Amino acid sequence: MSIVNIRREGEIAVVTVDNPPVNAISAELRQGLSDAVAALDADAAVRAVVLTCAGRTFIAGADVREFGKPPIPPHLPDVVNAIDNAAKPWVAAIHGAALGGGFEIAMGCRFRVAVADAMIGLPEVTLGIIPGASGTVRTPRLAGVEAAVSLVTTGKPMKAPKALEAGLIDAVIEGDLLPGAIAFARDALTRDLPQPLSARPLAPMSDEFWQGARKAASKAGHQAPLRALDSIRNATEVPFDAAMQYERETFLDLRAGDEAAALRHVFFAERAAPRPAVIDGIDPRPVTRVGVIGGGTMGAGIAAACRNAGLPVVLIERDSDAAARGLANVTKVFDGARARGILSDEAHAERLAGLGTSDDYAALAECDLVIEAVFEEISVKRDVFAQLGQHCRTDAILATNTSYIDPRLIAEGLPHPERFIGLHFFSPAHIMKLLEIVPAPETAPEVLAAAFALAKRLGKMPVRAGICEGFIGNRILKRYRAEAEALVESGIAIADIDAAMRGYGFKMGPFEAQDLGGLDIAYLQREGARAEGQDVPETLGDILVRAGRKGQKTGGGWYDYAEGDRKPRVSDTVAGLLAGRIAGQRVMDLADIAAHLVGAMAAEGQAILDEGIADQASDIDLVEIHGYGFPRWKGGPMFAAGRA
Ligand code: 3HC
Ligand code: NAI
Known about the structure:
Blueprint lengths: L3 E6 L2 E6 L9 H15 L6 E6 L22 H9 L5 E5 L2 E3 L1 H8 L2 E5 L3 E3 L13 H9 L1 H10 L3 E2 H6 L5 E3 L3 H12 L18 H12 L5 H14 L2 H16 L2 H15 L17 E4 L3 H12 L4 E4 L3 H20 L5 H9 L1 E4 L10 E4 L5 H14 L5 E4 L6 H4 L9 E6 L8 E6 L5 H14 L2 E4 L8 H17 L4 H11 L5 H8 L2 H12 L8 H7 L25 H7 L11 H21 L6 H12 L8 H7 L1
Parallel strand pairs: 2-3, 3-4, 4-6, 5-7, 6-9, 10-11, 10-13, 11-12, 13-14, 14-15, 16-17
Antiparallel strand pairs: 1-2, 7-8, 15-16
The structure holds 3-hydroxybutanoyl-coenzyme A and 1,4-dihydronicotinamide adenine dinucleotide.
């Protein structure tokens, strides 16, 4: 069997691509399609061709693994052109996903039909490239410039019914795809055929339109969306062949660049992290009902995340008043989603209907998983786990969301310790993608596997982390902040450090971020350690908190803030408070500041790896990207340091 096979249904030829797992476009696949066009053009008995795929999806795009290597002919643009200019009309029959080069092949076809749950998209910019086989040239000819700009510069795929509305496909097929597509092809033959897309004209757009589009595309922070926009604009201004050449040159240029290499690294890292070898072949313990202890910031977010994934939730608080506050906290999350149009009234009601609240642990009897998110105090947590030990099923998984406390201390004395695990969510827990999964020495493999299965169900990015202070993410954060403070002490301006990290791609620098989140949390943690007799040197942050500067909520932290304004202003008060610790003034190139701080993160990451706290460097990169705002297109600190 070849990976491209042809069979007949009367005058319709059916070309089936079969290249598991996702029908990615290899050299063999390109050759197979090219040969199929030639063979079917030469076959007088064939009047139309249906292109379909075996397995779980239509062609999911170019083979990302080939991107680091020299391109092998036939090149995809030529294959798409050959289909577009074939003597017989081709109909793409789409199920699963038609992404990137897959959708470009579909655009070469004279028609596109899809089942209702199929996804259509040009996600190339998310890989740091632009479409390389006419995505920026054919899409505007197919669906108009505006639709093309949106599809190509955001990289966001859309479901078939929306794609139909946008003019990207011709029909949504109800029922079986292949017979539907064949019937569509037969019907199309009774009418005049549309022109090939390469022959369709394209009207230029106004400068104003392009300015608006540029502003929107620049928000992504990296260059691919802007270069994609340039290519679409060029396609509206020059003939088809010249537009194709421009697109190809841009594609090859970006493909060889640092941002594309970083984004490819993240692509594969994200597929590796959810499947660590330790859970290979292990059946996860099933989770169908979740308990959450504590309805504060984290508990409410975790409960909301579980409800969004369709899991029934019981929320336990200290007393009935606290339970009511917990319910209000979760409700606020859903109210916000409804106000933003993400949640309908029915969905809002359904989310809340599946949420029970109580101050009685007996309500947890049916839960398969209970996640504790109470105050960060060992005695409070231990009391909670003593209750859980009494009231939960012996096979119910019991998890802690602690940020810093050693999970082994929390679980001490717990009956059936093999069911205990750390599940470290990030705030806001219904939004942030990262989930650090922290097994204790006794944690059973099927409990660990259940944690990864839960992450998948919640749409989270799971990373296994070993036990140490702060696990992976908060440990690196501590080092990052300490290193940033050391730069301040050496005379570099606070505002320069923040500007450097923004310039690198973070939404906020380390000091602005602390002002937003509050300086007191880390301060209290340090004070706790000091109270236990640990030698924790005074940080600059400690000096500010002691002076009442806890961040935006107190009107000032590292910066001053005017009433009702979040704009950080350089603070003379801070300069005065820290004067004794700062050695004069020093200017450092912003890029050097960023390189220094990213290097410090990577050095801590290396220590984490050496200690076995993380399994692989790419997991550390994912933690930083999904939990701490590290720019995805820089690949994470470990990747960036490896290329510096
Ligand atoms: N190239 C190479 N391998 C790919 C791939 C691709 N484009 N897409 C997926 N894979 C691999 C994955 O690495 C994974 O391999 P593994 O099992 O060995 O780890 C396997 O296929 C299954 O992938 P998923 O786990 O992601 O499978 P799902 O069923 O969850 O999702 C999918 C399927 C929606 C197709 C998803 O894989 C996806 O989004 N893939 C990327 C699609 C993409 O970005 N395409 C554009 C490529 S760029 C391009 O086409 C340029 C063109 O313009 C010239
Ligand atoms: P919070 O103070 O907002 O909420 C804690 C809740 O627990 C309160 O509603 C309180 O009433 C409840 N509670 C206290 N004792 C209880 C008991 N015995 N039984 C039932 N409920 C009880 O705290 P937050 O921020 O939600 O933190 C909770 C846990 O999550 C902590 O361990 C924290 O370290 C961790 N965490 C916090 C993050 C954050 O950004 N806030 C991020 C990740 C983890």
